UniProtKB/TrEMBL annotation, chain B:
GO terms for molecular function: DNA binding. Residues 30-84 form the HTH cro/C1-type domain. CDD domains: HTH_XRE. Pfam families: HTH_3. It comes from Chitinophaga oryziterrae. It comes from the Bacteria. This is Helix-turn-helix domain-containing protein.
Length: 176, 131
């Protein structure tokens, strides 16, 4: 899985062009979690992250992440609850090196990507997690553009609504 | 609901769930007080002699607060952050006693006195007050 995921990126972590769809991942009373299902993949990015780490040596960190997400689902994703990682966020995991990247839109909506293990002081030097951070940075840029240009919005039940056709379909990264 | 997420949720120990939930309760309470009193995390950090980044870490929801830290924050914010059910009950009963006394007094009070339990004030018309 690791090799497969890493082939999506160049060695200098330059993000390629990605195509995928925003899908609902988990729904809570207050918060709804979305993720990205890339073209050609069977599972969304958040599922791939869980698949990779749920039974690994990071299982305890996955448990903590899961307990925190469950609280977000019940209470909402309050600003300041997340670990800032440049233009995106990660779920706090105490002192663990595992990073699970996301984009917090508001208290009621968070989009989860994937993540990896930070092995250096700067995430730029961590080959196992930096590609996923950059992936989310690219996604966030396109997501915010769609919101700003009113291609996509959400209703009171946190359901994403396509204002223009196929707005849930994304093309982001270096696509030119 | 993702089956995989549900599977991991189901295996969580009650201790972990309770610990994270309590940490969220405490940090929610602190954040609410900061908002209500318009105090920034930086100002709270200064009062506690801590760095802003440390206070920010406490608010994430995965911090294991010690009683020492909670007491310091309560003193800095001049407000209670956590309570025990026993203490809460005692304080509630004490406040009901006070309310009962007000109600008894309210029955026999001079007509010119107006009491309010809700905001704990007693309005006394100026003339009556002089008398």
């Amino acid at each position: 899985m690791t090799f497969y995921r890493l082939t999506n990126f160049n060695l200098n972590f330059k993000v390629k062009c990605y195509k995928g769809k925003l899908v609902k991942w988990i729904e809570g009373d207050v918060m709804t979690a979305y993720s990205i299902l890339l073209e050609g993949e069977e599972e969304c990015e958040a599922e791939n992250f869980y698949l990779k780490y749920e039974d690994s040596v990071f299982a305890e960190d996955i448990d903590l992440i899961t307990a925190m997400i469950n609280e977000f689902l019940k209470r909402g994703a309050r600003e300041g609850r997340f670990r800032p990682e440049g233009a995106v966020h990660a779920i706090p995991t105490g002192g663990s090196a595992l990073r699970f990247y996301c984009v917090r839109m508001n208290k009621n909506m968070v989009v989860f990507g994937s993540g990896g293990v930070k092995t250096s002081q700067k995430s730029q030097d961590s080959p196992d997690c930096e590609p996923y951070r950059l992936f989310m940075v690219s996604f966030a840029k396109e997501f915010q553009r769609k919101i700003m240009e009113n291609e996509l919005r959400w209703d009171s039940a946190n359901k994403l609504i396509e204002v223009v056709n196929n707005a849930l379909y994304f093309e982001f990264g270096n696509c030119e | 609901m993702s089956e995989r997420f549900k599977k991991v949720s189901d295996r969580l120990s009650p201790e972990l769930k309770q610990r994270v939930s309590k940490s969220f309760d405490i940090s929610d309470q602190i954040l609410d007080i900061l908002e209500k009193k318009r105090i920034t995390q930086k100002q709270l950090a200064d009062k506690l002699g801590k760095s802003e980044s440390e206070v920010s870490k406490w608010m994430k929801g995965d911090h294991n607060f010690t009683i020492d830290t909670i007491v310091k924050i309560e003193i800095a914010l001049e407000e209670k952050i956590i309570d025990t059910p026993n203490n809460y009950q005692k304080e509630r009963l004490a406040s009901e006693d006070t309310k009962d006394q007000f109600e008894k007094w309210d029955k026999y009070k001079p007509a010119s006195f107006k009491t309010s339990y809700l905001n704990n004030t007693i309005e006394i018309p100026v003339k009556t007050a002089i008398l």
